[in-house]
Amino acid sequence: MESKKIAYQTFVLLAIFIVSNTATWAQAAFDQIQADRYFAATNYRLYPDTITTPQTPPPAGKHPFYISHYGRHGSRYMGSRKAYLTPLHILQKGYKAQKLTQLGLDLRKLLANIIHDTHGHWGDLSALGHQQNRDIARRMMQNYPEVFEGDAHIQARSTTMSRCMLSMGSALQQLKSMNPRLQVDMDASHEDMWYLNFQDKQLRDSMMTPKAKKAFEKYSNSRKHNWRLMNLIFTDSTFVKQNIDDEWLNYYLLKTDHVQLNTKSYDQVRLADLFTMEDLYIFWQYENAWWYICYGPSPLNGGFQPYTQRHLLRQIIQDADSCLTLNKPGVQLRFGHDTMILPLVCLIGLNGYDFQTENLEEVEKHGWWVSDIIPMAANLQFVFYREHPQDQDVIFKILLNEKEATLPIPTDIAPYYHWRDFREFYLKKLDDYEAR
Fold this sequence. Notes:
- With 436 residues, the chain is α/β, with parallel strands linked by helices.
- Helices cover 50% and strands 11% of the residues.
- The chain has two domains: 2-77 and 125-209 and 292-434, 3-Layer(aba) Sandwich (Rossmann fold), CATH 3.40.50; 81-123 and 210-285, no CATH class.
């Protein structure tokens, strides 16, 4: 009877905790943007490179001996010339009709300059992107020096996109500068794309089901337009409503602003002055909901989108099982994209990001914030510990963007987990999905 009472009290306390946190999360998202306006950039957010989160000491006698990693490339330019041209082409309509304000005329010149400066760099890794990967690699070695001692083996794999290969190169360059004796095996081949950048056509084509599209349109309709901004740029509101795609102009101006921070010219532009904190917050809500539906665990399209990364998760498990048999396994680095990391995080339920709801208003309230998951250079690190090579109780912790994270499996050593529990739970999860 006493145990039931304790269990009930625990449940009540947990319920109070969840309700109280849900009430503050929505406000906290806006507060984040007020503190850092580029938190609203979602997947274009700069990597939070001032990592000061303390690391929890491992259980007595356990030492780090192997790291398994998957990282997104660092900061980059927008992926296509069209992305830069779209807002300029929209403004050209106003220019030809002589409907631009002085601000609109200045904005048109500014966009033309940005297009000139970024010509030929579409999708390229920026100088900041190189630095982000060097810094992450440096902190990895500083935090876990035992793994990198002597002639430790580093296996690095990348997708065939140049920004990923260069991110890999920058990380390895940093590691070699700190320990020239490291033995590096580096490759970027189509042979590894089946798990580093797997594209599941069936799941991809079912992202926006009619049900999901209807829910997203309902959620986003009040968040698409920015008439305040249009009135600053154009002299005639009737002309705007009849001739201007205001939704896409607002969207691409924000995207251009966000991506410029990731490139060498970010300090030369002032697109940020066009937008209020409320503008940024509304844009973030729109983007956050879109990512939740298309790459998250949204039940609006069946809830299976995270399984696009089933091959990656299985490969991580198989690689770890193989490496755990070695006396000195070293490090495995993998470099890819945000559209792999986000569904992978949701697939393993990291930090509760497997949260499911059909009510898009609840996504933000629950703390499902894409900006915290996939900033530029986002990364997952599985750090493994044991007492000695014959130790049968291998444990690990998982870091999301270098911060200790939680998993939805029991543990008596949080934030550490027993590897045997992880592999059993997730292999069954993958097997159950594939046996459907």
